[in-house]
Write a structure and sequence with these properties.
With 264 residues, the chain is an alpha+beta fold. The chain has one domain. The chain has eight helices and ten strands. Strand 2 (84-93) and strand 3 (98-102) form a beta hairpin. The longest helix has 23 residues, at 10-32.
């Protein structure tokens, strides 16, 4: 009799969804405070919410909420031999003479805000390293959750993932006058943080979050640009904000980063 199962009600499934959204909020706050290991918890919740297999059905699919369009905040992938970073920015401060991999959350160029069907979002290439290895959102989330400590710790990591995680196979360097040096840290966990942000924007109407740390320059995709706050100022105050928050531009991304509306 121990193998009998009782089907969960829609209310019980919704309670699970609310729990995972709360888990993600808490992990995002902790990640933004410098605890990068929270990316493993984020990846596990994302897997529960959206990843379907032959034997397991994702929570959003059980709730019939997976046929919506998902927020996509990445640079477009271009087929050429260059390395590509669609979700993770290289934030640089010439004043502090440091650089880091960063999830820029909503503080991105306007043209990067899109909504796309789930399959397009999940299977979009978001990294291509210098060895021509390509990674989708699905790849990143399942590597982190299934191998790298989210829900399971493998005794060995797939080589291409381990190289992206630990060896900077994106090949990104900075030079602050003392010769070229690798950007410290890993782009993987910052990518998980940005994917979590996209899901929260998808599931929570009007959700907005910007990074607290300021940088003078950012690099993403295959180009370099000024801080995107300046790009956003091309919009008129009474235009609807292109991030689809439902607010006018001046009420939303038109505000300065210190006063911008956020959801904690």
């Amino acid at each position: 009799m121990g193998n009998q199962k009782r089907k969960l009600t829609p209310q019980e499934l919704q309670a699970h969804l609310d729990e995972h959204i709360d888990f993600m909020h808490r992990s995002c706050v902790a990640f933004d405070e410098g605890i990068e290991g929270e990316a493993k918890r984020l990846a596990t919740s994302i897997r529960v919410l959206v990843n379907d297999t032959r034997n397991q059905k994702s929570l959003l699919k059980q709730l019939h909420k997976k046929n919506i369009d998902f927020f996509e905040t990445s640079f477009d992938f271009i087929s050429n031999p260059m390395a590509h970073s669609g979700l993770v920015y290289f934030a640089m401060s010439m004043v502090e003479r440091k650089a880091r991999y960063a999830a820029m959350l909503d503080k991105i160029p306007i043209h990067c805000f899109k909504k796309v069907p789930f399959d397009d979002w999940w299977n979009q290439i978001v990294f291509r390293d210098n060895n021509q290895n390509e990674f989708t959102r699905r790849d990143i989330i399942l590597y982190v959750s299934d191998q790298d400590g989210g829900a399971h710790v493998d005794p060995a990591l797939d080589e291409i993932y381990a190289s992206l995680l630990k060896d900077n196979t994106l090949g990104m360097h900075v030079n602050f006058g003392k010769g070229e040096e690798l950007i410290p840290g890993s782009p993987v966990y910052a990518a998980v943080r940005q994917i979590a942000h996209e899901i929260l924007k998808t599931l929570i109407s009007g959700y907005i979050k910007t990074p607290e740390e300021k940088s003078e320059m950012i690099m993403g995709g295959m180009g370099i640009t000024k801080d995107p706050t300046f790009i956003m100022k091309e919009y008129k105050d009474d235009d609807l904000c292109p991030c689809e928050s439902g607010l006018t531009y001046i009420e939303c991304h038109g505000k300065t980063p210190d006063t911008m509306h956020t959801v904690k």
